[in-house]
Specification:
This protein is of the alpha/beta class. The chain has 4 helices and 4 strands; from the N terminus they run αβαβαβαβ. Helix 3 links the parallel strand 2 and strand 3.
Length: 108
C-alpha cells in the first residue's frame, strides 16, 4: 500500500460522505448519487463488512452491485479477528485506488 489517504484539503475535496442514522435509506440514496456521478461507494458500515450478514444491513443486491462499484462489503467472515485498524487499512486502500482511477469515493 502506498501512503495514507490524502490530507491535502484540495485532494480530500474529491471525496464525498453520506452519513445519517441507521435505517433511513442511505444505501438507496448512495446508489443514486454514485450512479449519477460515476462515483464508487466505500461502505463504512460496521456490519456490511461481514459475509452472510445480509438481513438487516441493507446491503445492495447483485443488480445494484453490477451498476455501482462497492468497496468494503463482504470482506470478512463473521467470527474472524477483524479489527477497526484492519478496517481502516482496507478502507484507506480502497479510497486511494478510487482516486488513482480518477473516480470519486462516496463514503456511506
Amino acid at each position: 500500500m502506498r501512503g495514507p489517504v490524502p490530507t491535502d484539503p484540495q485532494e480530500r475535496s474529491r471525496m464525498l460522505a453520506l452519513v445519517g442514522p441507521t435505517c433511513v435509506g442511505k444505501t438507496t440514496v448512495a446508489l443514486r448519487i454514485a450512479g449519477a456521478l460515476g462515483a464508487e461507494i466505500v461502505s463504512v458500515d460496521s456490519m456490511q463488512v461481514y459475509r452472510g450478514m445480509d438481513i438487516g444491513t441493507s446491503k445492495p443486491d447483485a443488480a445494484e452491485r453490477d451498476r455501482v462499484r462497492l468497496h468494503m462489503v463482504d470482506v470478512a467472515e463473521p467470527g474472524s479477528d477483524f479489527s477497526v485498524a484492519r478496517f481502516k487499512e482496507m478502507a484507506d486502500a480502497s479510497v486511494r485506488e478510487i482516486l488513482e482511477r480518477g473516480k470519486v469515493p462516496l463514503l456511506t
